[in-house]
Design goal:
With about 200 residues, this protein is α/β, with parallel strands linked by helices. It has seven helices and seven strands.
């Protein structure tokens, strides 16, 4: 049993930045399982990557929402974490939004070994129109995904108790709460481990 646990260990602390994709032509072969982070700009994807990997500046946390327009890839021993560019920033031009949609479509439809998509939503707000577009797109692809509610540290205890009722229409969809103070991080690591190490 101990040997099996050692074999299945994902060493999050070993994560390193590997590359960025600005276009589908730059994609390399998907030779490792991939766990994907998707969400609007400034929802906390970079912060979550840093928390998961216990590194303060592995992923750059931009003060300007919508600044990152590439797919950023982080290599771990057993998988890759793939950070998709954020969507829905108000200052993004229509043509750039179309480019984003084209890049996402090609990423998700080129046969990559995607084991889990983490769809990040800000727990303080109802999902936006673009949040729902991404949600519905993931449902249509049949890819396994989970809603990750971020920024729980911004809510009071009483507000946290109301989360289930606020998101009740998504009761059939797995979801998990995380925060900058570490809430839910260890549990999310285990969720990722199970998704990546599942039996072939």
């Amino acid at each position: 049993m101990m040997n099996q646990q050692k074999k299945d260990a994902i060493h999050f602390h070993t994560a390193r930045f590997e590359t960025s994709f600005g276009s589908a032509e730059q994609f390399f072969a998907s030779d490792l399982p991939e766990v994907v982070l998707a969400g609007r700009s400034n929802v906390g994807k970079s912060s979550l990557i840093n928390k998961l990997c216990n590194q303060k500046s592995l992923a750059r946390v931009s003060a300007t929402p919508g600044k990152t327009e590439t797919i950023n890839v982080y290599r771990l021993n057993q998988l890759r974490l793939v950070d998709l560019p954020g969507y829905g920033y108000a200052k993004r031009a229509k043509t750039r939004l179309e480019d984003w949609g084209d890049l996402m479509d090609k990423y998700f439809t080129t046969g990559r070994d995607i084991r889990l998509v983490l769809l990040l939503w800000d727990i303080r707000h109802d999902p936006s129109e673009l949040d729902m577009v991404m949600h519905d797109f993931l449902e249509q692809t049949g890819l396994p995904f989970m809603i990750i509610l971020t920024k729980a540290d911004k809510l009071t205890k009483s507000e946290l108790l109301q989360v289930d009722s606020r998101f009740s229409r998504f009761s059939g969809q797995p979801r998990h709460i995380v925060s900058a103070n570490g809430m839910g991080i260890e549990e999310l690591r285990e969720i990722i481990r199970k998704a990546v190490m599942k039996e072939e």
